[in-house]
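Continuing from the previous page of notes. For each protein in this section, the sequence appears first, followed by its structure tokens. Read the first protein now.
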Amino acid sequence: MWPYFPELMARPIPRYTSYPPATAFDDGVGAEAQARALNAVAAGTPLSLYVHIPYCQQICWYCGCNTGVAGRTHRLAAYLAALEGEIALVAKLLGGRGKLHRIAFGGGSPNAIDPIAFVRLVDRLVTIFGGGQAPDISIEIDPRAFTPDWAMTLSIAQVSRVSFGVQSFDDQIQAAIGRLQPVEMIETCMAALRARGISAINFDLMYGLPHQDIAKLEATLDHVVRLRPSRVALFGYAHVPHLFPRQRRIDSAALPGPAARFDQAAHGHARLVREGYVAIGFDHFALPHDPLAQAASQGRVRRNFQGFTEDQADVMIGLGASAISLFPDAILQNEKNPGAYREKIAASQLAAVRGVQRGGEDQARAQVIEHLLCQMRAVPDPLLMDPELEALLAHYSALGLVEWAGPEVRITEHGRPYARNVAAAFDRHRS
């Protein structure tokens, strides 16, 4: 279905959940910039919150997230106390401005904390930032730590969407990545949620895993089609043990090669589309009735640190260790280490320690990159065009990956797996 260009697939390219990407963040942009950005939020500005819980009950070997073992109860209690302290600091600077629309809990595993603590945290956020409005609430869940109490808790907290980290239903692959969870476990979790009225359920899947081939991926997709989650994300596994030592437990010799990875991505895309899922960007899929698919049909899909989303807010405030906040003119990341994060909050300091200021040119490039990834088309500002960029786009056009319609550059269906390559052409921070 898609042409395979090894030289393009071999290039490391950011996922562009922000622009400039995290590789461009500067340690000199931190708490002062965060305070300015919060103070500049105008009354009534749509606001989204991301809350990071950097703990899991069990650590999976493939994971590239900022997370550690939950361990002793006091560790979680101390972190949650710091989180409440940060909420108070941020709320004071916002001064009641902003209109809360969404709260997303990620990790790690947010269900590593006690259910009662989660309800209290949601109540705190809605009370302080909500202004009387009930926000859309989503959460990432580790099914291995999911209990009937959690299903009731999520219902009480009015959570509307739950994401399960599935990765694969194959027993051999699960053992190879340190994440054993039989399909029956996922079925039980979904039944418990649906019984509580929570029907918006996402699956995160991976290709390029150890021992994975088309047959094993197809078997996993058979279960996915039967269970019918609202959304599916199909990510490529990134094996970088020099960055995440836990990945050293994965046998690199069992990993599929680049061509096999490409074939798996293409096969997954074709199967999910054939089963009625709408393709969003290059790795997300949604059923037609899902708000993300509806946003796609209306050209309203956005991209932020949660991936492809229907969230239209230009301001997203990250809370917790390593969380990233997004403002029109700044992107700011909190201290990654939970201990150092707690120390900053205990000293009544904002937690941002690195980031980037975005001037007019960066904002214009960010818009083009976002449109290319989300809508597969964009109208670049002529001021961004230069001979080098024009030559690169002409090369992609010759390969059949893009085409021009007047001033609009469009990514073709053959170009979909290379969307990030095309977007990267507009990245001035790449060498």
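Done with the first. The second protein uses the same format. Note its length before scrolling.
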Amino acid sequence: MTVRMTVRLLFSCELLRIETMQRTKSQFSRILALDRQIRAGNYPNCILFADEWEVSRKTVQRDVDFLRDQLGAPLEYSRERKGFFYSDENWFLPALNLQEGDLVNLLIAVKAAGQYRGTPVAEHLQSICGKIAELLPEQISVDPELLYAGFSFTAPPTRAISPPVWKALVRGLLSRRMLRLHYAGKQKPFDVCPYHLANLQGEWYLFVGFDDSADIRQLSVGRIDQAVLLPKPFAVPETFDAGKLLNETFQRFAGDNQAHAVKVVFDKEVAPWVLERQWHPEQKVKTRLDGSVELSFRAKGLFEVMRWLLAWGCHVTVKSPKELRNMLNDEIRAMAQKLQTAESE
């Protein structure tokens, strides 16, 4: 059954897990609150509104000026009621007009963004979606089952990211200034040139360069304990191509600067499962006469590739590179030895 629910409540349930959205002291929120009071016939004034929002009267006066001069509100002051009112009651703040299908799609996107709860990214998305919710009509018909029962998103556990670290990284990227990082497992801090931020399989990674080297390294943002923005500027090399870099990344790990040509063959028994997914952005697939499947791609770093292949067990054969085949042999022998040790205990 279709139930009439406020858009504001729907967004708060998905983003904040509380019954009502928290009020902020941004100008955007103040103007919306001021508009609601005026439209309700409460005749708000600068003194009372400033006290309610715990801001200065000059701040509220700037909000009033913005509402009148920038948004074109027919705002007048009643000396008798000692407050503001609209001389034209048919005037409304600019609003978004969405159909029910548009709203559902938007809320699905919000729910998908919930994978990043607890990160600075989620906080910004929460703020942006909250503003969108404020601009939507007060009431809209929507079936809650579409949101809470019909759609789900899951993601692997992610490392927590410090907001000050995130802020410093973004500033370094935008201003092209070097960063001094304190990284987990490293005794001393080191300076880097931040080239690119990427989210791989739910984890954030920073791709950096160094002053004295042309190498590019991949750092886990969750392992950065502290980031200090330095005054020293840097220039991103003309040869740096984030798209190409990520196309040669397998899952989360880009590894070193050497790209390996990987070629593996999957047995006929697992071929349908291999063919139904894209495992690499630039993979090449070949179905062989015996029903097996040959998969080839280029990847920087082989550790993630090895872990992925282990999940297929005896149904996969590594053709190249030899280094990957040796890594798998060493890992399988170590696993077998541990199993034998466990059985003898």
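What the second structure shows: The chain is about 40% helix and 25% strand. The first helix runs from residue 7 to 15. We return to this in next week's lecture.
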